[in-house]
Amino acid sequence: MKLKLLIPALFLMISAPASFAAEKPYLMGALGDSILAGFLANTSLLSGTLLGPGFDDPKDYNKGFHPKDLLENKKNLSWFSGAVIPSHFTFLTHYLNRTEPGSTLEVINMAKFGAETKDVLLQTDGLVEAMKSGKYKSLKYVALMAGANDICNAANEGTSPDAQMVSNFAAIYEKLAGIRQEEPIRVLNVGVGRLADLGKADIRKHRTFGGLKCGTWYDNVISLCRQFTGWKTPADYQKWMSHLEQKNNLIKASAEAAAAKYSNLKIFYSNRPFEAPVLPQIIAKDCFHPSSAGQTAMSVSLWERQPWFK
């Protein structure tokens, strides 16, 4: 009699772990350039001091490591993946805690300094491979912020990036749409910011590394977007702002075309960075990238406008 009672109990003990196995985590992913990577976000143009957590650890870069990667702050200060600012990772974590208690979330930030859309196309492969691993329940949310380097490099060379950008964005969306899962993949496509604002006197007068004024830094040291930071007249400023607006319309049209083509992608285009003026208070020490304050402001404004997680 005792043996008969023990057999069901033993069966329950063996079976229990499978029924209580932890669910797979959700995944969110970032595709883009140095802004998404939090490049120099722990520095400030006005204070010149390091703010908060330091740079990313080089051991986190398994392949394709470059010394400039040391200046990234993906883990802590990126508007999308940062753990110590109000980022989209922290916002989505709180949302899931409220709507799906017990669920977990992980983030992969593939963004890189200097990345053009052709490089972001390769970054997309990283998210595809992550989903093929079977580790994740679904790809919950993707940020796509690219195009600035295409635009700046083409402007410096006197060429047009339009056709290649359209082709690259189409290929990025095609790869994301190829990920098979039950729920749709939500993609926040963020437009290019007001790069020409960096050429305003209120920013060019501030001092950066070595005591150089930002204007001197733009004109003689770095080559980043020199056409947009070195304009001389209000007419030139308006010319380059109109140029940026036209490129953002191109990015938006690419997003709309992909949304119409792929039913499993829920794409939302946001032009918020172009709507908000660039101020010295939100710029890093290089006179170019957002500081932690700029990353935080971008995170909050973009999160308020996304349509899915309310």
Query: What coarse outline follows from CA principal-axis ratios?
Result: globular
Number of strands: 5
Round the Cα radius of gyration to an integer and report it: 22 Å
The SSE string, one letter per element, is HEHEHEHHEHHHHEHH
Total count of helical runs of at least 4 residues: 11
Helix content: 40-55%
Strand order of the largest sheet: 2-1-3-4-5
| Average residue-wise pLDDT | 88
CATH topology: Rossmann fold
Query: What does the main sheet amount to?
Result: 5 strands, parallel
* Class computed from helices, strands and strand pairing: alpha/beta
> What number of domains?
1
Question: How much of the residues is beta strand, in percent?
Answer: 5-15%
**What CATH architecture do you see?**
3-Layer(aba) Sandwich
- Low-pLDDT parts are 1-20
Q: CATH superfamily membership, which one?
A: SGNH hydrolase
Report the span from N to C terminus: 58 Å
Task: Give the oligomeric state of the chains in this entry, treating copies of one chain as homo and distinct chains as hetero.
Answer: single chain
CATH C-level label: Alpha Beta
